[in-house]
Design a protein that fits this description.
The protein is an alpha+beta fold. It is 29% helix and 28% strand. The strands form two sheets. Strands 3-4-5-7-6 form a five-stranded antiparallel β-sheet, covered by helices on one side. It has a two-stranded antiparallel sheet with strand order 1-2. Strand 1 (16-19) and strand 2 form a beta hairpin. Helix 2 runs antiparallel to helix 4. The chain is globular and about 35 Å long.
């Protein structure tokens, strides 16, 4: 067994966990940095949210493929939120945090009219132009929940970071 480098501990701080991923080296995911983004419900919100989530995940040292998949998930959810927004002054919020497991939890909330999740998860006809976003989100996540909280629609996804979808 190779000698451990001097001055380095094999123990991680309590707010980190190690797990294997596609490469040979373990990675550490930080659990103490929540994500909070508030955006005006416009087309500019989509790339802004995607980049903020991607940067947050990269800072937490998530796997590149996982980062890309979750950025796609947020792109789809924020696009839906923008399309459902009630007007030009409406806002969209994106929140994220890490749970033990290691699991990432992301929420996108808006003040739109809401929707029926069961119907929205059905794949559209082959030639349909719309309707693939939530089935994609569902395929890339472990859990997808939609709730109405007063006048707010909250879509929450969870994804175990130790499970590959490839």
């Amino acid at each position: 067994m190779p000698a451990r480098p001097q001055g380095r501990s094999s123990r991680l701080p309590a707010d980190q966990v190690r797990f294997p991923f596609a490469g040979r080296h373990p990675m550490a995911v930080r659990f103490d940095q929540p994500l909070e983004v508030r955006l005006v419900a416009s087309v500019d919100a989509v790339p802004t949210a995607r980049h903020r989530v991607s940067r947050w995940l990269a800072q937490a040292r998530t796997d590149r493929v996982m980062n890309d998949e979750l950025a796609l998930v947020v792109t789809e959810l924020v696009t839906n939120a923008v399309e459902a927004s009630p007007g030009p002054d409406a806002t969209i919020e994106v929140h994220g945090h890490f749970d033990r497991g290691p699991t990432v939890v992301l929420q996108v909330s808006d003040h739109g009219r809401g929707f029926d999740l069961a119907r929205s998860l059905e794949f559209p006809a082959v030639r349909a132009v719309r309707g693939r976003g939530l089935p994609i989100v569902d395929a890339l996540t472990d859990d997808l929940v939609v709730e109405r909280r007063g006048d707010t629609t909250v879509v929450e996804i969870t994804r175990n970071l130790g499970v590959s979808r490839r």
